[in-house]
User: Which sequence fits this backbone?
């Protein structure tokens, strides 16, 4: 199971990113545990300078704007 963290203050883009992660994982048949991180200090500590951000198994893979669907699927498959 992959651990995915979605970093953001709770805006619509952050919620959309969380939904994109869940949908992509379901399509790929990958089990994921998605955690939403909205604490500003935790976001900064993770190195996210622009939200939404995504980390997969502790590695920051995206920050700022909605992720590209193809890239998201690649990150989840890796």
Assistant:
């Amino acid at each position: 199971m992959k651990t995915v963290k979605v970093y953001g203050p709770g805006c619509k883009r952050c919620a959309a990113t969380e939904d994109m992660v869940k949908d992509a994982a379901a399509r790929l048949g990958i089990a994921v545990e998605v955690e939403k991180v909205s604490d500003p200090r935790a976001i900064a500590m993770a190195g996210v300078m622009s939200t939404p951000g995504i980390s997969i198994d502790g590695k920051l893979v995206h920050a700022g704007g909605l992720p590209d669907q193809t890239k998201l699927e690649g990150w989840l498959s890796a």
Notes: The CA atoms of residues 61 and 75 lie 7 Å apart. The chain has three helices and four strands. The chain has one domain: 2-65. The mean pLDDT is 97.
